[in-house]
Write a structure and sequence with these properties.
Strand content of chain B: under 5%
Order of helices and strands of chain A: HEHEEHEHEEHEHEHHHEHHHEHEEEEEH
Largest interface: A-B, 35 and 29 residues
Helix content of chain B: over 70%
CATH topology of the domain at 378-528 in chain B: Serine Threonine Protein Phosphatase 5, Tetratricopeptide repeat
CATH superfamily of the domain at 378-528 in chain B: Tetratricopeptide repeat domain
Shape of chain B: elongated
Radius of gyration of chain A: 22 Å
Oligomer: heterodimer
Helix content of chain A: 25-40%
CATH architecture of the domain at 378-528 in chain B: Alpha Horseshoe
Radius of gyration of chain B: 33 Å
Chain lengths: ~425, ~525
C-alpha cells in the first residue's frame, strides 16, 4: 500500500514538473513516460528517433512505465517536447538510480538505442501519405522517410536503407482483385495503366512478373540483414509472390493467362519468410488471395467479425526484440480490418514469434521472425484507428489519436532497429 | 396483439407459436413478418422456409412471400438456393421488375456488384428497358465507384420517387472532390424536379457548400412540393445558424404557402441575417389573428427590426400601441430592445427612460449596464453588468474590459462601445485604439477588441497591424497569445508557412500554460502538413 502511494506521489510530482520550458535545466536526463502520463505517445517516438539521429545517447526502458524512453536533457529536446506537447520528466542521478534499481527487480530492461535506421517506404510517388497507416504515423511523429517504388527497387536502391515498410501493395500483381468491384472506376483504370507501363518500361512481360521480381528483391533485402515491416495485404501477397516465384499464380485479368491449375502444389514455401502450406484462392471472382487471412473481409460468405487482440508479455531481459515490438500502454487492443486482417495459425512457420493474437481464434494478429541476417514483422489490418477503412474514406487525423495503442505498434517497429544488440547470457 | 406483446417481452418461442397459428388461420403480412423476426431471434430462420414454400404455392404472385424467402436465404448464406428462388420468382412473374430489384439489392449488400450488374442487365432485356431498375443501377454504380453513371441513374429514379433523395445523397456522398461538380450538374439538369434537386442540396450541404445547396433548390417551380422542400431546408439552415440562406428558403416557401408561423420563422431568419427591413414585409402585423397574437409573436420582431435600423420613435409608438397585450416578461424584453433602438437613434436619455418605464427589472438589467457604459459611467456599469442573468459573449468582453479599466469615468471608452452599438464598426475600432491610449492598464484588451472588429469587417491588414502591436508592445499580456495565434493563422492563410510556424512555436514556448496552446499546436500541425487539412 505504501509502495503504491509512493509511486502515485512520484508520478504526480513528475506530472507537475512537466512544464519544462519554465523549469531550470538542472536534470541530467529526460524521462519520456509512455504510460497514461504521456500526452502524445506518437510524437514521443519522433522525439526519441530524432534524438538518436542527432547522436544523443538514448535508452528504451522496456516494460517501465509503458516502455519509457530515457534521453539526455538538452535545451533542444526540451524545446521539441514543449512544441509537440510531449510529456517529459527531468530526472537527476539519484532518481535515475532509483529507476534502475526498480527495473533490476522486475521484468524490465534498459536497451541502448544507438543508430537511427534509414527508412524506406514502398509506395508510389504520387500516393497520398494519408492512405497508409505507417506514412501517417511517420509524418505525424516527424520521422523522415524515403519513398521507393518499383523503379528504385529494381535499381537496387534497397541496399541504401536499414528498414523497409510495405502496406497494401499486391505483390501477386492482381491489384488486390479490386477489378471485381471497381473495374471501371477512374482510379482503378489509372492504376492498371501506370502498373502496366512500369512493367513494360522495366522489361517485364506483365505486372505480376514485375511484382514477383520486386518481392524477390525484398526477400534478398531481408536475407542480407534488412528490417522489414509489413501491414495489410502486403504481408500475404509478398509471401505468395515469393513462394510462387516460378508459378503462374495470377488470374487472367492480370496477365492474360489463367492461374496454373497446379499452382497450389507448385508453391515453394521454403523460400518464404513467415508462412507455409497456404492454399491459393483459385477463383478470379472471389476477392481473396489465399487462406492465410483469417478474416476474409471482402468475401461476404467468409467474413469474420472483429474482436480484440492481446499483446504477449515477453521477458524483457531474455527476449528484448519481441519485448520492444509489444511495448504499449494497453495490452488489449480493438482489432481492425484490412485486405489482410490476420494470419491463420495453420499457415505459420514453426519459427515464427506470435506477438499478439485473439483469444480462442484460429488466427493471430501480429508476428515476427528472423530470416537470413535480417528480421521481418507483420501486422494485419489497414488502419488501427479506422477499423473498417474503405476506399474513398477520409484520412485518419492522428492529432485526434495521439495516444493510439495500435499506432504505437507501428512506431515500435520503426525504433527497434536502433537498439544495440547485446550478447545473450549463456 | 398478443403475439406482438410476447415478442416485445422477448418470449420468442411463445410469440412464434401465435404467429404460426395466425398464418394457418389467415395469412397476413403482419403474421409472416412477425414469424420472420422471431425465427431470426431464435436463430432458426431455416424453419421459415417450409411455411414460405407453402404460402408461395398457394399465391405464387404475392411479392411479400417471395421477398421474405430471398431475405431468409440471404440470412442463411445459401447462395445457390437464393439464386434458385430468384429464378423461380422471375419465371412466375415475367413482366414484374420486383424480383430483379430485390435480388440485385441483395447482391449489392453481399458485395457482389458484378453479379448484381448481370441481374440489372437481364432485367433490361426481360422488361424491355432499364428504366424500372434505375434505383438498383444507381446503387450499383455507386458501389463500383462510377459516380457519374450513378448520379444519372439516381436522377431518373428520383423524378418518380423523390422520397429517395436522402438515400441518393448518402450513396453519392463519397464522390471524390474532383468529380463532385459534375455530379451536382447531373442532378441539376432541367427540368427542375424536387427529388434530384433535394439530393443535390443535401450533397452540397455534406460537401460544405451551403450556398450551393440553396442554389439547387431555388429554381424549383413554386408549388406545394417545392414549398415543403424549401421549408424543411430553411428550418434546417436556421437551426445551423445559416441565416441568409434560411431567410431566402423560408421566404420562398412563404410566397407559396402563407402561414403566421412560417412568417415568424422567415422574419426571425431575416433579422439574424442582418436584413431587418425584410421583417416588415415577411411578417406584417396584419398576419396576426388578433392583437394578443400580434403582441406575442410579431411585435417583438418588429421592435427588434426597428432597433437594428435605429428607428427609436417608430419602435416607441409600436410598443405603446400594443402595451396592454404584452405579458410582463415580454414587456421587459421589448423595453430592452426599445432602449437599443434609442441608442442606435443617438438618444441615450430616451433609452434610459424606456428602461425606467418598463419597471425595476428592466432598469437594473444588463441593458441599463450597457447604457451606463455607453455614457462612460464605468462605476455604474460595473455594478449593473455583474448582476446579469443572461450573460453572452459581448457582455463577457465588455465586463473583461470594464474590470481592467481603472476609475469610474471613461467617456472615450464609452463612446467606442456606443459607436459599435450604432453599427459603425470602422469608427468603433478607431475609437477603441484611442481608448487604449487613455487606459494603458487595459490597452492590450482594447487593442485586441479593435483587431477582432477589423478582422470581422474583413480588414485583415488593419487587424494584423494591431496583432503585431499587441505582441510587440504587450508581450506579457494574456492578449499577446491570442494576437500571435491570429497573426500566425493569417500568415498560414496567406501561404507563409514558415512565418506561421515561427510564430506558433514562439507562442507555445513562451506561453506553455495558455489555454490557447492546444489550438496553436493544431495550427502548427496544419502548417507543417503533418496531418490532413480536411
Amino acid at each position: 500500500m505504501m509502495s503504491q502511494l509512493a509511486t502515485a506521489l512520484r508520478r504526480l510530482g513528475a506530472a507537475i514538473v512537466f512544464l519544462l520550458v519554465a523549469t531550470p535545466a538542472v536534470a541530467q536526463r529526460l524521462l519520456v513516460p509512455m504510460d497514461d502520463a504521456q500526452t502524445d505517445h506518437l510524437k514521443a517516438y519522433g522525439l526519441t528517433y530524432n534524438a538518436i539521429k542527432a547522436g544523443l545517447q538514448s535508452e528504451w526502458l522496456l516494460n517501465y512505465r509503458g516502455g519509457a524512453f530515457l534521453l539526455p536533457d538538452t535545451p533542444e529536446l526540451r524545446k521539441r517536447a514543449a512544441l509537440d506537447g510531449i510529456a517529459v520528466e527531468p530526472v537527476n542521478d539519484a532518481q535515475l538510480a532509483s529507476i534502475r534499481h526498480e527495473m533490476a527487480g522486475g521484468n524490465m530492461e534498459a536497451v541502448p538505442l544507438e543508430k537511427a535506421p534509414r527508412i524506406a517506404v514502398y509506395t508510389p510517388r504520387d500516393a497520398q501519405p494519408w492512405d497508409d497507416a505507417v506514412t501517417l504515423a511517420l509524418n505525424y511523429a516527424g520521422i523522415d522517410f524515403t519513398p521507393v517504388y518499383d523503379d528504385e527497387v529494381e535499381r537496387g536502391d534497397l541496399s541504401r536503407f536499414d528498414w523497409l515498410h510495405l502496406h497494401h501493395e499486391d505483390f501477386t500483381g492482381q491489384y488486390n482483385k479490386f477489378n471485381l468491384g471497381y473495374r471501371d472506376a477512374p482510379w482503378f483504370r489509372a492504376l492498371v495503366a501506370t502498373s502496366t507501363d512500369a512493367a513494360r518500361r522495366l522489361g517485364f512481360p506483365s505486372v505480376p512478373a514485375l511484382k514477383k521480381d520486386v518481392a524477390e528483391h525484398i526477400r534478398q533485402f531481408v536475407d542480407r540483414g534488412g528490417f522489414l515491416f509489413a501491414m495489410c495485404g502486403a504481408t500475404e501477397t509478398l509471401e505468395l509472390a515469393i513462394a510462387g516465384h516460378d508459378v503462374d499464380i495470377a488470374g487472367e485479368f492480370a496477365d492474360g493467362t489463367p492461374m496454373d491449375p497446379e499452382a497450389d502444389a507448385k508453391m515453394n514455401w521454403s523460400r518464404t519468410l513467415a508462412f507455409r502450406n497456404a492454399h491459393l484462392e483459385r477463383s478470379p471472382y472471389v476477392n481473396s488471395m489465399s487462406d492465410i487471412d483469417g478474416h476474409q473481409v471482402n468475401v461476404p460468405g467468409r467474413r469474420q467479425p472483429l474482436g480484440t487482440f492481446t499483446l504477449f508479455n515477453f521477458s524483457a531481459k531474455f527476449d528484448p526484440v519481441p519485448s520492444m515490438l509489444v511495448q504499449d500502454h494497453r495490452s488489449v487492443i480493438s482489432d481492425f480490418y484490412g485486405v489482410t486482417t490476420s494470419f491463420m495459425k495453420s499457415t505459420l512457420k514453426p519459427g515464427d514469434v506470435v506477438l499478439a493474437s485473439e483469444e480462442g481464434a484460429p488466427w493471430v494478429k501480429y508476428i515476427h521472425g528472423d530470416y537470413g541476417k535480417g528480421t521481418w514483422t507483420y501486422l494485419g489490418g489497414h488502419d488501427p484507428e479506422d477499423a473498417q477503412h474503405a476506399i474513398g474514406n477520409p484520412p485518419t487525423d492522428l492529432s485526434l489519436h495521439k495516444n493510439s495503442p495500435g499506432y504505437r505498434l507501428i512506431l515500435n517497429n520503426v525504433l527497434f532497429p536502433a537498439a544495440k544488440k547485446k550478447p545473450l547470457k549463456t | 396483439m398478443r403475439a406482438l406483446d410476447l415478442e416485445n417481452e422477448s418470449k420468442f418461442r411463445e410469440a412464434a407459436a401465435l404467429f404460426r397459428q395466425a398464418l394457418d388461420a389467415k395469412p397476413t403480412p403482419g403474421a409472416l413478418l412477425g414469424l420472420e423476426r422471431v425465427y431470426a431471434e431464435l436463430r432458426i430462420s431455416d424453419s421459415l422456409l417450409p411455411t414460405l414454400d407453402s404460402l408461395i404455392a398457394r399465391e405464387p404472385h404475392e411479392q411479400l412471400y417471395r421477398s421474405v424467402k430471398l431475405r431468409t436465404l440471404q440470412l442463411l448464406g445459401r447462395q445457390a438456393a437464393l439464386r434458385g428462388a430468384f429464378e423461380e420468382w422471375a419465371a412466375a412473374t415475367p413482366r414484374d421488375p420486383t424480383p430483379y430489384r430485390e435480388y440485385a439489392r441483395i447482391l449489392i449488400q453481399l458485395g457482389q456488384p458484378a453479379a448484381a450488374d448481370s441481374v440489372v442487365q437481364r432485367a433490361s432485356m426481360a422488361l424491355g428497358g432499364s428504366s424500372q431498375m434505375d434505383y438498383e443501377t444507381a446503387q450499383l454504380r455507386a458501389a463500383e465507384g462510377r459516380w457519374e453513371a450513378s448520379a444519372q441513374s439516381w436522377r431518373r429514379a428520383l423524378v418518380t420517387a423523390p422520397q429517395l433523395a436522402a438515400a441518393a445523397a448518402y450513396a453519392l456522398a463519397p464522390t471524390p472532390t474532383a468529380s463532385r461538380e459534375s455530379i451536382r450538374q447531373i442532378l441539376l439538369l432541367p427540368p427542375a424536379d424536387v427529388g434530384p434537386r433535394c439530393a443535390a442540396a443535401e450533397l452540397s450541404l455534406n460537401w460544405g457548400d451551403a450556398p450551393g445547396a440553396w442554389e439547387a433548390l431555388r429554381a424549383l417551380p413554386p408549388d406545394t412540393a417545392s414549398a415543403s422542400a424549401w421549408t424543411e431546408f430553411g428550418e434546417r439552415a436556421l437551426a445551423e445558424e445559416r441565416y441568409a440562406i434560411a431567410r431566402d428558403a423560408l421566404s420562398s416557401a412563404l410566397r407559396v404557402r402563407a402561414s403566421p408561423d412560417l412568417a415568424v420563422e422567415a422574419a426571425t431568419a431575416a433579422l439574424r441575417a442582418g436584413t431587418p427591413s425584410a421583417v416588415f414585409t415577411l411578417a406584417p402585423l396584419s398576419m396576426a389573428s388578433d392583437s394578443a397574437h400580434a403582441a406575442a409573436q410579431f411585435v417583438p420582431l418588429h421592435v427588434a427590426a426597428l432597433a437594428a435600423l435605429g428607428q427609436g420613435a417608430e419602435a416607441d409608438a409600436l410598443v405603446k400601441h400594443y402595451d396592454r397585450w404584452l405579458a410582463p416578461g415580454a414587456r421587459t424584453a421589448v423595453a430592452k430592445m426599445l432602449a437599443t433602438a434609442w441608442v442606435r437613434s443617438g438618444d441615450l436619455g430616451r433609452a434610459r427612460d424606456a428602461l425606467r418605464a418598463a419597471g425595476p427589472d428592466a432598469d437594473s438589467s444588463d441593458a441599463a449596464g450597457w447604457l451606463a457604459l455607453y455614457e462612460g459611467r464605468l462605476g455604474d456599469a460595473r455594478i449593473l453588468m455583474r448582476g446579469v442573468r443572461e450573460p453572452g459573449p459581448e457582455l463577457a468582453v465588455a465586463l473583461g474590459i470594464v474590470a481592467r479599466t481603472r476609475g469610474d469615468s471613461a467617456p472615450t471608452l464609452g463612446n467606442a462601445f456606443l459607436t459599435l452599438a450604432r453599427g459603425d464598426s470602422a469608427s468603433a475600432a478607431t475609437r477603441f485604439v484611442a481608448a487604449a491610449a487613455e487606459h494603458p492598464e487595459a490597452a492590450s484588451s482594447l487593442l485586441l477588441l479593435a483587431a477582432r472588429i477589423n478582422a470581422a469587417r474583413g480588414d485583415e491588414s488593419a487587424a494584423l497591424a494591431l496583432w503585431q502591436r499587441i505582441v510587440g508592445d504587450y508581450a506579457d499580456s494574456p492578449e499577446a497569445v491570442e494576437g500571435e495565434l491570429e497573426w500566425a493563422r493569417l500568415l498560414r492563410r496567406r501561404g507563409d508557412r514558415a512565418g506561421a510556424i515561427a510564430h506558433l512555436e514562439h507562442l507555445i514556448l513562451s506561453a506553455p500554460q495558455s489555454a490557447l496552446v492546444p489550438q496553436a499546436r493544431r495550427e502548427l500541425e496544419l502548417a507543417k502538413g503533418t496531418v490532413p487539412s480536411s
